[in-house]
């Protein structure tokens, strides 16, 4: 049975063209890009090429605004820690409640270990940022704002260009975790006030363990990793040449396919969304109905545990990620759905250019019966909580994906 892979926000298949581009750098062209001899020069040229390919994808003004890293997590850490070093007289960070743990865990750590105050901006039940609460936190004490471009669980897109302009008004740096947005949404960073942006190659058909941090020209930056002079002193350590070459090629392909593929992927996503809503009663979509990644469908099912659906789908050869229900005794709810006051088991289907209509039809074929099988009758609610409580629609307690991808 071939697998229907609908977990592309977790990771994507490496494109065969990317593998081809990487192969020489895993075999004959093994030079260290810092070496002065021919093999080193070849590797150095490959890095420059990858930097330009990525520059084109994100619309950066210059390729020297790009520093290669080990991925999204490192880039997020590097951006926030740099801001606290370069603006030492400011001790506040503004972020949102629905960020990836790469940001939230670091912020919690900084709160515990340094004299740093963290403001976490809430979201509404569609996952939309509370802009008034955001404005209210912006003062000259803020060193950095770190707010994601698009949410990994629901696909909700935040208005980062506008948020960056507001941050500038108080002289704060603006960083965005764009790990889920790069390669899926068109970008032209040179026309925005965004100072720093994190991205990760494995989310757009590149290899794992490689990513980049964009730092706008003129923005002061202190390296997280100390050592040699690689990456113009911004990230010490011998560069992962094959990975970076793969990232560059993946960026080139993402840009080439973006227009046509976005339309096609959104059509597939909408077909699945409408099909599920029609076939499965008491199901609803989590996330902003309009401002949402074209590839993401997070769908909740009343009176059901997301994990159960996930396991049965997996048995039927369908890979996606899950959201357990809110009720006590079930797995911990995700911070994202909890912040949105969503309390039902949820499943995230995320598409890529590898998917087609057969994938959607396969899910529609098996999902209604799975939900039917798992759905608890209203009368089987656990003692102490009414059946209605356990349905916990928006406005009650929480549900989860537990998946931080
Ligand atoms: N930020 C977001 C929004 C993500 O979805 C992920 C991926 O899981 C990360 C950060 C971490 O990226 P990486 O896996 O490259 O460290």
TrEMBL record:
Required cofactor(s): pyridoxal 5'-phosphate
Alphabetized UniProt keyword annotations: Iron, Iron-sulfur, Metal-binding, Nitrogen fixation, Pyridoxal phosphate, Transferase
Start and end residues of each stretch annotated as Disordered: 375-405
Limits of the Aminotransferase class V domain: 4-363
Catalytic activity line of the entry: (sulfur carrier)-H + L-cysteine = (sulfur carrier)-SH + L-alanine
UniProt record, GO biological process: amino acid metabolic process
EC id: 2.8.1.7
Pfam families in UniProt: Aminotran_5
Ribonucleoprotein as UniProt keyword: no
Molecular-function GO term, any one: cysteine desulfurase activity
Known function: Catalyzes the removal of elemental sulfur atoms from cysteine to produce alanine. Seems to participate in the biosynthesis of the nitrogenase metalloclusters by providing the inorganic sulfur required for the Fe-S core formation.
Binding partners and assembly: Homodimer.
NCBIfam families: FeS_nifS (TIGR03402)
The family this protein is said to belong to: Belongs to the class-V pyridoxal-phosphate-dependent aminotransferase family. NifS/IscS subfamily.
Protein name: Cysteine desulfurase
């Amino acid at each position: 049975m071939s697998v229907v892979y609908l977990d592309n926000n977790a990771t994507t298949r490496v494109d065969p063209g990317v593998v081809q581009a990487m192969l020489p750098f895993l075999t004959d062209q093994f030079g260290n890009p810092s070496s002065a001899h021919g093999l080193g020069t070849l590797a150095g040229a490959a890095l420059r090429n990858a930097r330009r390919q990525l520059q084109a994808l994100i619309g950066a003004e210059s390729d020297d605004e790009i520093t290669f890293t080990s991925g999204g997590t490192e880039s997020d850490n590097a951006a926030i820690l740099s801001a606290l070093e370069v603006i030492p007289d400011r001790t506040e960070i503004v972020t949102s409640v629905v960020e990836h743990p790469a940001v939230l865990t670091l912020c919690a750590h900084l709160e515990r270990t340094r004299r740093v105050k963290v403001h976490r901006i809430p979201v509404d039940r569609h996952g939309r940022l509370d802009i008034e609460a955001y404005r209210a936190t912006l003062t000259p004490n803020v060193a950095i704002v770190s707010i994601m471009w698009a949410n990994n669980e629901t696909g909700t897109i935040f208005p980062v260009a506008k948020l960056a302009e507001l941050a500038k008004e108080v002289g704060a740096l603006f960083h965005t975790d764009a790990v889920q947005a790069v390669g899926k949404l068109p970008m032209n960073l040179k026309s925005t006030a965004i100072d720093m942006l994190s991205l990760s190659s494995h989310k757009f058909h590149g290899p794992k363990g490689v990513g980049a941090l964009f730092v706008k020209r003129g923005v002061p930056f202190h390296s997280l990793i100390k050592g040699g002079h690689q990456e113009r002193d911004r990230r010490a350590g011998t560069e992962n040449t094959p990975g970076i070459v793969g990232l560059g090629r993946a960026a080139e392909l993402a840009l080439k396919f973006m227009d046509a593929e976005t339309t096609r992927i959104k059509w597939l996503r909408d077909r699945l969304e409408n099909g599920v809503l029609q076939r499965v009663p008491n199901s609803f979509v989590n996330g902003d109905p309009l401002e949402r990644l074209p590839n993401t469908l997070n769908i909740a099912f009343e009176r059901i545990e997301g994990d159960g659906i996930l396991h049965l789908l997996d048995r039927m050869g369908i890979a996606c990620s899950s959201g357990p229900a809110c009720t006590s005794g079930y797995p911990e709810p995700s911070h994202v759905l909890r912040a949105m006051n969503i309390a039902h088991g949820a499943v995230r289907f995320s598409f890529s250019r590898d998917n087609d209509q057969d994938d959607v039809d396969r899910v529609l074929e098996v999902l209604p019966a799975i939900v039917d099988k798992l759905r608890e009758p209203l009368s089987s609610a656990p003692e102490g909580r009414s059946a209605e409580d356990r349905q916990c629609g928006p406005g009650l307690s929480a549900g989860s994906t537990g998946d931080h991808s």
